[in-house]
Specification:
The protein is 40% helix and 20% strand. By secondary structure, it is α+β, with helices and mostly antiparallel strands.
């Protein structure tokens, strides 16, 4: 099982990510696209890196908006895995 990060470690890693926030032991971002088709195309780009990492985000789609939430469920909070995947997702356009 992945080890939970301390509050200081979470803050340090969060400072290195733009457009991500910490909400109740979860890492979240909201991306907006021109329309539903573009939003779905973005979500489809998340499949390969998530599968490769063996770590899967919670995804909410509302027309042109995609909310991504990361947490390590089996550890009960944020771990290195969450921040590693967030960094990868941040590079996807």
């Amino acid at each position: 099982m992945a080890q939970l990060l301390t509050g200081a470690e979470i803050q340090e890693r969060a400072d290195g990510l733009s457009d991500w926030t910490i909400e109740s032991s979860k890492l979240q971002t909201l991306r907006k696209f021109k329309d539903f088709v573009a939003a779905i195309a973005f979500v489809n780009k998340l499949v390969e890196p998530s599968e490769s990492a063996g770590h899967h985000p919670d995804i909410e789609i509302s027309y042109n908006k995609v909310k991504i939430t990361l947490t390590t469920h089996d550890a009960g909070g944020l771990t290195k895995k969450d921040f590693d995947l967030a960094a990868i997702i941040s590079q996807i356009v």
